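Entry 14. Structure prediction run on the chain below.
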Amino acid sequence: MNLEYRLSDRKRDILTAIIKDYITHGEPLGSKTLAKRHGFTFSPATIRNEMAELEENGLLYQPHTSAGRVPSQKGYRFFVDYLMGAYVPTREEMHFMQRLQQTSRAVEAILSQATRVLAEATQSIAITETPYLRQNPVKELRLIPLSENSMVLDIEYNSGIRRQSVVNFSQSIYADVLGLLTYYLNTQLNQSSSLVGLFHRIATCSLEREIQTYRSIILEMVSEIYAQSQRDEKVYLNGTSHLLREPEFQSMEQAFPIINILEDERFVRRLFDSCQESSPQQSHNVYCLIGNENAYEELHNCSFVATPYFINTKATGMIGVLGPTRMDYSKVIALLQNVASNMTTTLGRLFS
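Output returned:
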């Protein structure tokens, strides 16, 4: 945004004050109120002229002809990219977020607790996705027979995560054939690393001669393994009630479309995917979608910020916060990063 180089220090100060004031009070701000609240030494007339130029640049707008100005989505974007200062969590917030380190030794419990902690700390909707297992490198795959056409699928990922589930097939598979196919799949995993790579390789490439006889079995097997890994991927969501307390969403007409789409886990997964298609906020490594930067019309009055969490130095999932465009970005980003860091530490201890 070239405006970075055109705004004077005074315009920057005024824009910052308006955005911070609007985040706190949620009301349009006039020049006299701005001067009084924020102690500017220049006159209300000067402030009024500067606000008019900020409006011409698309950073502010006037919701009613007799009202003061409020930040536009472009204004919020400029603030997040260039003006936002660092927020230092309070001692109480730090103590509260450290509750995550007391979570039981299970991935699901850690993710669920992190979501609750973040929602309560930010007073917003918090969303966490489980590790995106289909793209995680697989260490070993085991198939343990239960009957002629059912078996236990045991997948161990390089990150240390292990998943077990019962898989049923449409045809019988004898134990010696199962052993051969399990060995073959593990050799293919050494070449393609992840279940996504394995699925693509088996579906598109010619099978070795000794495996050709079992082509239909192995295709069904890989399809079932891939489908099971999809079912293992979940989304944790907490804090919907916080959204309903915001003045922007107190009518069901405004709130219902948002709540409705958040019930669809596939949508939430796509929301995280869309973040990664954008560029992270440089100084914070946080993805931030403001207003109509969201691909979904239902979220055009919302902002979504997200950041990855790690297992053994590998980014394996994301955690985010959804709230109104009027959210306190610096505070939300700082608390989000803190919770993500605690998640990384806790998961690192679990898999060390």
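The beta strands are 60-61, 70-71, 125-129, 138-145, 150-157, 162-168, 235-238, 287-290, 302-311, 314-324.
Filed with the rest of this week's runs.
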